[in-house]
Amino acid sequence: MLCAKRLSMITAKAQTPYAAQSQDEIIAYQANLIAQKDAHIEQLTIKCEANQRQLATLQHQIEQLIRRIYGRKSEKIDPNQMMLDSIIQESLAQSAAIPVAAEVEAPVVAVAKPGKEKKERTVYGRIPIPDHLERVEIIIDIPEDKKVSPLTGEPLKIIAVEASEKLEYRPGKLFVKVYKRPQYALPDNEGVVCAAMPDSPIDKCKADVGLLSHVIVSKFADHLPLYRQDVIFQREKVEIPRATQSGWLMQMYESIKILKPVLRQAVLENGILFTDDTPVALQDHQNNPGKFKKARLWVYVRSGTGPPLTMYDFSMDRGKKRPLDFLDKYKGYVHADAYSGYDELFKKDGIIEVGCWAHARRKFDEASSSRPKEATDILARIARLYHEVETPGKTLSNEELYQLRQEKAKPILDNIFATLETLKDQTIPSEPIRKAIDYSLNQKAALYRYLDNGLLKPDNNTAENAMRPVALGRKNWLFVGSERGGHAAALYMSLIQSCKNCDVNPWEYLNDMLRRIMSHPVSKLRELLPDQWKPQPR
Fold this sequence. Notes:
Blueprint: H1 2-15, H2 23-70, H3 79-82, H4 86-94, H5 101-105, E1 184-185, E2 192-193, H6 209-220, H7 226-235, H8 242-256, H9 259-268, E3 272-283, E4 292-302, E5 310-315, H10 321-326, E6 332-335, E7 351-354, H11 357-367, H12 372-390, H13 398-424, H14 432-442, H15 444-448, H16 461-466, H17 468-477, E8 479-480, H18 483-501, H19 506-516
Parallel strand pairs: 3-6, 3-8, 6-7
Antiparallel strand pairs: 1-2, 3-4, 4-5
Helix pairs in contact: 4-12, 6-19, 7-8, 8-18, 11-12, 11-14, 12-13, 13-14
């Protein structure tokens, strides 16, 4: 039994690669095997790292999708909450360019945001009734037989009147204006003379200007599609089909589109502009009936001195020619995002790009799930640009704000970009935070630009806020029916948004402007824009 076992061990040893080999050959074989194993391990390590990066990217995309569907939309960081985050607190301590001792020592209490007074919220009690509302007196008196004394029979005397005010509402009511024009016969049968009808943007239209203005405001300010307005009119026992309303809107557009070049010139006159774009669905009647294609709506908001004006521009595509055409001969600053379609625009002499810190910040916010420490460090530094400079600077003059930015914002910016240069060497191109870093570094000059002038802003939120009514309206009217309809919608939204910016009632403005525009001198059309409009006495 022992002999058989020894024989099998000898046979196995003879079958090993070391059998009948010298010591040098065995060492060479072992070295080759180790080198092969090392190469294999290296390839597996590379593959594992690639899988980890892909996993992190996919995890990031899933988190962003879940956040977009279910998460909060706001990206604000409460400065008090920042103090509770150890990561952000550590990053603030490392920002040696600006002392932060005062920030850290501040007690963590729930207070109102800087620059804003805390509003008292009335939970119980009576609502205030404004003085400017019309008062309708309703006399509630005792019966006549109660106005004499039951003992003496003498009439009672009024010693006071108790008044109680209640806020009431009466739905908008349709009524009919009957225009009666006396006709006068000239002597000797020479003809008949009568007064002319008042000007109207639609000739021989059964709707007066007040109703036409109501249709515009209901659709483009209150976001009521025409079919809903049709139902509302039916409750008043009046049939106004949506096709009729659509025809009114297009005919009025033809009457007032003369305002478009005047509004464009007014928007561009200050030399400071905000711009952005958003998609809108357009019915493709010619190529695919019943289908839609993507068109664009661009916004341009005037800033600087004077009331802001807003203009929307409709286009069939997102080509770089669109902003180039609109801003032809424009000289000044343009706040915009990093859309490549603006690159050609910023190559023109006299047009100066101003970057958007809100866009830069958003990318770091999206990368915070994969690189929390590095991303929140940058988010904290960006937050200081607003909490320490922009919020206190709202009450300062333009020159004072310029000085404050040079003293406090510039060192913070220098610190941010120095940190980004360091982080770039520590990340790989496929990481979300690397994309955020590259975006900011590519936009470095534009992101510094707002320091040059107190009238400039660190972000393009003004244009993005101007796009909110479009997004809200798009959920209701869903699409535009034609290219001409897109241009009409853009003009109506331009006038209504400008009215809101200038604190003007859109219906009152349209009701007056539409009555006057047909006979108003072309050289004085600027007077009919919302920032200079004055109602005509009637």
